[in-house]
Design brief:
By secondary structure, the chain is an alpha/beta fold. It contains 14 helices and 21 strands. It has two domains: 176 residues, 3-Layer(aba) Sandwich (Rossmann fold), CATH 3.40.50; 212 residues, CoaB-like (Rossmann fold), CATH 3.40.50. It binds ligand PMT.
Length: 401
C-alpha cells in the first residue's frame, strides 16, 4: 500500500523520537520513500545520522548550511511529500503549529505544505490534558490536520496516562488505510459547481450573491485527492486551485454554468452542486452604463434555468447527484422539497441561522437529508472537513450500488 508513497517524517524533541527510527524502518519496509525533517531539539534525542542512514536522504534541520551557505527549501520539501507525518509531535511544536510560528525548518515546512498533515502527539499526561494543548489540537483538527490520538500507558516520567505516541505499527496501519482511501475514486469523473453567478445589468453592474466558492472548491479538492478527475465549474471567485486532477472551468452567469454542466454531466459518475446560482437575471442587459435619472429604477427579471433540476432529469442509473440547500427559514421543509424536486441522492442543508455556516466563512455546519427521511447532523467544522464528510457519504452510496 505504501509503495512509492512520499512521506515526509517530521521529528520533534521528545523521548518518543526513538520510536520514529522504528517508524522510519517500517515505512521503508512497506515501500515508502521517506525524507526526514527534525527540529533542533529532536537531534538531542536521536542523531541526524541515524535518520539519514535509514532514509537514504540527508536530514534537514537548519534553514541553511552554515559552512557552505546552502539554503534548504522548506517549500520544496512540502511540495515533494504525499503526506507530512509529524511523529512525535511535542506540546511545543503543536502550539507553534496552531499559532503559525515559523522558527525552525519543520514549522516553515508545515506552513508551506500542501499535502495532508498527520500529527502523532507524544508528551506527558498532564501536558496532553492541559487546556492549552487540547485547544491547540482542536485548532489543528479544525484546519483539517489529522491527529492520531496518543495511547494510554506508562510514560517516560513514570506517570501513567494518555500521552504515549502511537506505536510505529499502528501509524503504518493508519497510513495504509489513509492511502487506500485516498485513491478510492481513481478512474471516476466528477462534476462540481462552486461560487456565485453574476447576472449582468449593464457593463458595470450585476446581480450576485456572497458565495466565495470555498465550499465547492473544498469538495473538488477532496474528490481530486481521492483520485477522481474533477470538472470544477466555478462562478467568479478569488480562489485558485493547484491539484492536477482538477480542470477549472470559469463561468460568469447561470446560463453559462448551465450549458457547461449539461455538457459534462453525462460523462461523470458524481456531481455535487455547491454553487449559489442566481434564480433570476435581468430581462435585458443594457449595452451602456445605465445613467442616474429618476428616483426609481425598475429592472425586470426573468427566470434562469435550474441547473440542478435539469441534471436531476438527465440523471441515469448509477450516477450520484448531490445538492445543497441554503436556507434562512423553514429549513428542513424547504430542503426536503428541493431534494425531491431536483432528484438529488441527498441534500446538504446549511442554514444562515447557524453562526459560522454558509457564505464566505472557512467553516460550515450541515445536515445531510435523504429521501427516506433519514437525517445526519454534523457539528461546525472547517469546509475541508465538511467536504470529507460529503465525499465519505458519496463513497458509501457507491459501495452500496
Ligand atoms: O461559496 P461559499 O462562500 O463557501 O458558501 C457556500 C454556500 C453557502 C454557497 C454553499 O454551501 C451552498 O449552500 N450552496 C448552494 C446555495 C444555493 O443556491 O442554494 P439553493 O437552496 O438556492 O439551491 C438549491 C440547489 O440547487 C443547490 O445545489 C444549487 O446549486 C442548485 N441550483 C439552484 C438554482 C439554480 N438556478 N440552479 C441550481 O443548480
Amino acid at each position: 500500500m505504501l509503495k512509492g508513497k512520499k512521506i515526509l517524517l517530521g521529528v520533534t524533541g521528545g523521548i518518543a523520537a526513538y520510536k520514529s527510527v522504528y517508524l522510519l524502518r517500517e515505512l521503508k519496509k512497506q515501500g515508502a520513500e521517506v525524507k526526514v525533517v527534525m527540529t533542533p531539539m529532536a537531534k538531542e534525542f536521536v542523531g541526524k545520522l541515524t535518520f539519514a542512514t535509514l532514509s537514504g536522504y540527508p536530514v534537514e534541520e537548519e534553514f541553511f548550511d552554515r559552512q557552505t551557505g546552502q539554503w534548504f527549501s522548506h517549500v520544496e520539501l512540502g511540495l515533494w511529500a504525499d503526506v507530512f507525518l509529524i511523529a512525535p509531535a511535542t506540546a511545543n511544536t503543536i502550539a507553534k503549529m496552531a499559532h503559525g510560528l515559523a522558527d525552525n525548518l519543520l514549522l516553515t515546512t508545515y506552513l508551506s505544505a500542501r499535502c495532508p498533515v498527520i500529527i502523532a502527539p507524544a508528551m506527558d499526561v498532564d501536558m496532553y490534558n492541559h487546556a492549552a494543548t487540547q485547544q491547540n489540537l482542536s485548532v489543528l483538527k479544525q484546519r483539517g490536520n489529522i491527529v492520531l490520538e496518543p495511547n494510554e500507558g506508562e510514560l517516560a516520567s513514570g506517570l501513567v496516562g494518555r500521552g504515549r505516541m502511537q506505536e510505529p505499527e499502528q501509524i503504518v496501519e493508519f497510513l495504509e488505510r489513509f492511502f487506500a482511501k485516498s485513491q478510492s475514486l481513481k478512474g471516476l469523473k466528477a462534476l462540481v459547481t462552486a461560487g456565485p453567478t453574476y447576472e449582468l445589468i449593464d457593463p458595470v453592474r450585476f446581480i450576485g450573491n456572497f458565495s466565495s466558492g470555498k465550499m465547492g472548491y473544498a469538495i473538488a479538492e477532496e474528490l481530486a485527492m481521492r483520485g477522481a478527475k474533477v470538472f470544477l465549474i466555478s462562478g467568479p471567485t478569488h480562489l485558485s486551485i493547484a491539484h492536477p486532477n482538477i480542470e477549472l472551468i470559469k463561468v460568469v452567469s447561470a446560463r453559462e454554468m448551465h450549458r457547461k454542466a449539461l455538457d459534462i454531466f453525462p460523462s461523470v459518475k458524481i456531481a455535487v452542486l455547491a454553487a449559489a446560482v442566481a434564480d433570476y437575471r435581468p430581462a435585458e442587459v443594457a449595452s451602456q452604463k445605465i445613467k442616474k435619472s429618476g428616483d426609481e429604477l425598475v429592472i425586470r427579471l426573468v427566470k434562469n434555468p435550474d441547473i440542478a433540476r435539469d441534471l436531476g432529469k438527465l440523471k441515469s442509473t448509477g450516477q450520484i447527484l448531490v445538492g445543497f440547500a441554503l436556507e434562512t427559514d423553514n429549513e428542513l421543509q424547504n430542503a426536503v422539497e428541493k431534494l425531491k424536486s431536483k432528484n438529488f441522492d441527498f441534500i446538504v442543508l446549511n442554514s444562515l441561522k447557524d453562526e459560522g455556516a454558509g457564505f464566505g466563512t472557512d467553516t460550515n455546519k450541515v445536515k445531510f437529508i435523504f429521501s427516506n427521511g433519514q437525517i445526519k447532523d454534523f457539528p461546525l467544522k472547517t469546509k475541508k472537513y465538511v467536504a470529507k464528510d460529503i465525499i465519505d457519504q458519496i463513497q458509501d452510496l457507491l459501495e452500496r450500488q
